[in-house]
Amino acid sequence: MSYPYDPNQPPNYGAGGYGQQPYGGFPGGNPAGPEPDNNLVWAILATVLCCLPLGIVSIVKSTSVSKLWAAGDYAGAQKAADEAKKWAIWSAISSVVIWVLIIIVYVIFFVILLGASASTSTY
Fold first, then answer.
1. Which residues form the signal peptide (predicted)?
2. Does residue 55 sit within a domain?
3. Contact 80, 39 (CB under 8 A)
4. Which domain holds residue 53?
5. Is position 60 within any domain?
């Protein structure tokens, strides 16, 4: 019978034997750098000051960055950080667009209202 290991030797669990990670090693390899910025401040500001639904998505994405990083999913953590930033930006842009549209509607409404009242004579 052929063994993939020497049965007379003790198992080498701590040094990566049997496909395991070495003690203290990272599952996805060593991280390329520090943990990415989770953009939580921007997500909260976007939620409070801008568009609520898009800001909530940004908060959910930003809170998952640290969890993914701790689990060793460095690419997933970077992707979540990028998506949190993207959703915060979209929240801010949509808020600006909505406010510009509201101002345009009010200006048109008052121009029509004032134009109609100016054209009628009270004499």
1. none
2. yes
3. no
4. 13-94
5. yes
